[in-house]
């Protein structure tokens, strides 16, 4: 506790003195001594330590709070008094910085009644490196005080993780959504009117069940629930089938099947929809074949529930696979071997032992598929037809001609309540039961192969789906290598050269800037997302504290609403000081991190459910703290979950469009925005060429992540070939 308080105070004080406090319009310098640039240029990104020369008295807490923390850390006082003073210094410092941040805006005082503190002729910019690092260090100082007072088993590391996770989720998830959702309680003139939300909720377009009586459509709420349930169940079944085949199917081409399963998640926007239309559209391969061979006119069946369901199954099955592959790989065979020892058949062992142990992963995969389906608006917009869902209703309320922020906020509230219901159901299904299969023994044995019947079932599900995936991609991606897709199919590399041309050592292609920006921002966001997700999973799985369930659900908030809503919410929350991030790459990175955080979290929690808490307790018994238990015991066993978090965070950052469409600028254009703009202009060849390069880059990154992180090995024994085993028995 004392060491944590000392170092957090030292870091906060150094950041306040040396790092640029404000983010000016022309950017901030990244060198550690950039804050001292005021010696030659008083207008350059001042550090908090310049308050004596520039009169910014409101930044005194940035100096006084960490200075007090240093004095307390070195003072010869009792543990209880030191913890109380740490808590006081960190808490009051954070409150003071928060108060001054929102009290002073772009034109001086933010409210007239602040004038009593004195005239304010200066403005305040958004925080820079110093303004971001000081509050973070003060939060750790406050966590050290909480640990010293007995919270979190008196472990400063656990307390710091809890405080950092809570603060980051509150700032970058809860705050933007609360500000946006408050519009549900405003009337058309912008005034507060609580009754307005009830009028919007009574809209018959939301709750109608007329389709049960033969009408063409039902309400958007029921459509969303139906689609989400089908997608959640379908993606979970497909993901489980692929995960079982890859890990226990004894297939020679298991590695290729693994990569094929993940392929849809590395696909930029519109490629899947385009491929489905090429296959099942009115002039698609299947429609033409049905008409020529059987005289059947399939019509526009792809536009509606079937098409949206098929597209979302393709898009979200990789999420279920990434969650379940970590759970299956981490399943220790000990209990299955015990079942076989008791003369249970392989089918009985799979039904009574394996599947129950996989329940946390199955429940988490269903939850993610359900929530992703509710939040997706790209596929329903392209293929929905008359099948309206809440995501499309919200999208048109935000960007359509009606521009009704109150309606969009009300529909977002409905989505959040539906996500809360799914979250509660998932918690209920996995509560009060143990799924531990990894204990402290050194050798967990060899995972048994799938029973013959289960293997045949998985193959009958996975192989047709894999074949359809291959055909879909071959048709869709071929458009980048023909002259004019649909009319002139002469092979050409013209689109690729136009996008990625290099002349005289200069990158002259049209897509270079957007691709480099996308890779850079995704590479920054991915490790942050994975680290925060694994830390939060460890915290929620191993620690009991007040508000844990609320905080765990709060992580799902940004996942449960359409990306368009998230983008608008971020613009509203981070467009003014102190968090003036709009127009920078920082707001895009923050959106990437907290939009994709739930997958890393759910994958980590599913894997944590299999690890016996006695391993953590043994570390504590041997004198290790929370950092030792997490870093030396739990983290090595979470390698599949780490890979899943890294993979998902990186590829979703590379392929996302809806959440960042309102956040990009000319300097921060992303590849997905470039692709969509080319699609809008009808330049499909150039768009597909960029998509092909993005897919190749992401596959390369996936391979590197797998190579660097590796796989978790529960047992020491290798699988024994069947022939050798029979020879040994003979």
From TrEMBL:
It holds the Pfam family BPD_transp_1. InterPro entries: MetI-like, MetI-like_sf. Residues 221-426, 515-705 form the ABC transmembrane type-1 domain. The chain crosses the membrane at residues 58-77, 84-105, 125-147, 159-182, 225-247, 259-281, 301-325, 381-399, 405-425, 465-486, 515-541, 553-573, 579-598, 641-664, 684-709. Keywords: Cell membrane, Membrane, Transmembrane, Transmembrane helix, Transport. The keyword Cell membrane applies. The keyword Secreted does not apply. It is a multi-pass membrane protein. It is found in: Cell membrane. Belongs to the binding-protein-dependent transport system permease family. This is ABC transporter permease. It comes from Muricoccus vinaceus.
């Amino acid at each position: 506790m004392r060491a944590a308080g000392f170092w957090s105070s030292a870091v906060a004080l150094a950041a306040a003195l040396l790092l640029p406090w404000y983010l000016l319009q022309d950017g901030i310098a990244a060198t550690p001594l950039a804050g001292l640039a005021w010696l030659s240029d008083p207008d350059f990104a001042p550090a908090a330590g310049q308050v004596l020369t520039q009169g910014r008295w409101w930044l005194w807490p940035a100096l006084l709070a960490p200075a007090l923390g240093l004095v307390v850390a070195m003072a010869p006082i009792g543990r209880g008094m030191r913890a109380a003073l740490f808590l006081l210094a960190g808490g009051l410092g954070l409150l003071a910085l928060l108060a001054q941040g929102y009290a002073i805006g772009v034109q001086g005082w933010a409210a007239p009644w602040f004038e009593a503190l004195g005239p304010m002729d200066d403005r305040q910019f958004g925080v820079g490196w110093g303004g971001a690092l000081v509050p973070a260090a003060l939060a750790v100082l406050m966590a050290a005080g909480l640990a010293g007072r007995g919270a979190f088993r008196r472990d400063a590391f656990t307390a710091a993780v809890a405080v950092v996770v809570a603060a980051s989720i509150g700032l970058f998830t809860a705050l933007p959504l609360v500000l946006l959702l408050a519009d549900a309680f405003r009337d058309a003139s912008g005034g507060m009117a609580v009754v307005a939300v009830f009028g919007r909720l009574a809209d018959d377009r939301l709750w109608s069940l007329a389709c049960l009586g033969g009408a063409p459509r039902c309400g958007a709420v029921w459509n969303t629930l139906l689609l989400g349930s089908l997608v959640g169940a379908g993606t979970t079944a497909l993901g489980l089938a692929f995960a079982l085949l890859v890990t226990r199917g004894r297939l020679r081409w298991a590695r290729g099947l693994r990569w094929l399963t993940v392929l849809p998640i590395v696909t930029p926007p519109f490629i899947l929809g385009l491929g489905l239309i090429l296959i099942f559209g009115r002039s698609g391969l299947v429609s033409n074949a049905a008409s020529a061979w059987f005289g059947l006119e399939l019509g526009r069946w792809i536009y509606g529930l079937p098409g949206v369901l098929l597209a979302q199954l393709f898009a979200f099955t990789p999420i279920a696979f990434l969650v379940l592959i970590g759970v299956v790989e981490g399943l220790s065979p000990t209990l299955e071997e015990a079942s076989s020892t008791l003369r249970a058949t392989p089918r009985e062992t799979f039904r009574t032992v394996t599947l129950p142990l996989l329940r946390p992963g199955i429940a988490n995969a269903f939850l993610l598929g359900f929530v992703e389906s509710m939040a997706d608006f790209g596929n329903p917009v392209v293929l929905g037809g008359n099948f309206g869902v809440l995501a499309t209703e919200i999208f048109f309320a935000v960007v359509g001609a009606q521009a009704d922020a109150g309606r969009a906020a009300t529909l977002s509230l409905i989505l959040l309540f539906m996500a809360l219901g799914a979250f509660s159901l998932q918690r209920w299904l996995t509560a009060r039961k143990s799924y531990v299969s990894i204990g402290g023994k050194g050798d967990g044995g060899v995972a048994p192969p799938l029973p013959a019947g289960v293997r045949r079932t998985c193959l009958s599900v996975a192989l047709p789906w894999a074949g359809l995936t291959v055909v879909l991609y071959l048709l869709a991606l071929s458009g980048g290598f023909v002259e004019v897709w649909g009319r002139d199919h002469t092979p050409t590399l013209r689109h690729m050269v136009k996008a990625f041309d290099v002349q005289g050592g200069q990158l002259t292609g049209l897509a270079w800037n957007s691709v480099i920006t996308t890779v850079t921002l995704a590479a920054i966001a991915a490790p942050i997302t994975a680290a925060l997700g694994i830390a939060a999973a460890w915290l929620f799985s191993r620690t009991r504290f007040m508000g844990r369930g609320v905080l765990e659900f709060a992580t799902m908030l940004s996942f449960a609403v359409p990306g368009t809503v998230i983008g608008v919410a971020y613009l509203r929350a981070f467009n003014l000081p102190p968090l003036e991030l709009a127009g920078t790459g920082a707001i895009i990175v923050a959106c990437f991190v907290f939009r994709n955080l739930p997958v890393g979290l759910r994958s980590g929690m599913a894997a944590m459910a299999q690890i016996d808490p006695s391993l953590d307790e043994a570390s504590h018994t041997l004198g290790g703290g929370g950092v030792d238990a997490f870093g030396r015991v739990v983290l090595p066993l979470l390698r599949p979950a780490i890979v899943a978090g890294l993979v998902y965070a990186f590829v979703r950052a590379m392929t996302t469009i809806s959440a960042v469409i309102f956040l990009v600028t000319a300097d921060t254009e992303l590849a997905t925005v470039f692709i969509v703009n080319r699609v809008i202009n009808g330049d499909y060849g150039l768009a597909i060429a960029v998509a092909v390069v993005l897919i190749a880059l992401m596959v390369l990154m996936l391979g590197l992540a797998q190579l660097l992180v590796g796989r978790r090995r529960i047992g020491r024994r290798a699988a024994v070939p069947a022939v050798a085993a029979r020879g040994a028995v003979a």
